[in-house]
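Let's study my pick:
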Amino acid sequence: MRRLSAWKSEALWRIFLLCFAMLLGVNSAAAQSYHIRAGDILRIEVLEDPELNRSVLVTPDGRISVPMAGTMRASGQPIEAVQRGLAGRLAGAFTNPPNVFVSIERLADPRLDARKQAKPQLISVFVMGEANTPGMLEIPPNTSVLQAFAAMGGFTKFAAIKRIQLRRAATIVPLNYRQIEAGSASGHMKLRDGDVIIVPQRRLFE
């Protein structure tokens, strides 16, 4: 009886392990099947340098920008591919290959167009780069550049605040935050729906 009971326990344990392994396989396959989309917010963490940890927006053209790694395409790729790509780009800055982890912090909202129709009083402006709160800003029409800077929480310590860009379709408008602080007229420029504000990374000795 004891041998039979032990055999049953072992059999049940093997069945449990098999089911658990199958569950992990399903979850892993589900994660790998997701491909990043424009509008997603990615969380990037570098084990060797926490100062590189940040949330980044996948811009409408499908790209992300990360200090020391530059700009790279993310849209249409699985998370693992972006993770490998970032690790490869950052490898030259570390003695050993860095441990880079990428996760989805927030998915792009497929109902964005519907929300715009329901709330025509708001426009969407995308912020990328060295802003304290990158991502999509939903702001009232006639919001100025300076007001948008406040809405995105200002800039990180890596920000090149004299080389900010406002991209509107094929037009690029250079913005210098120091001049705006001093009263430059560019700070009063009104933003439009779909505008992209890019805050580049500061160069060495800049």
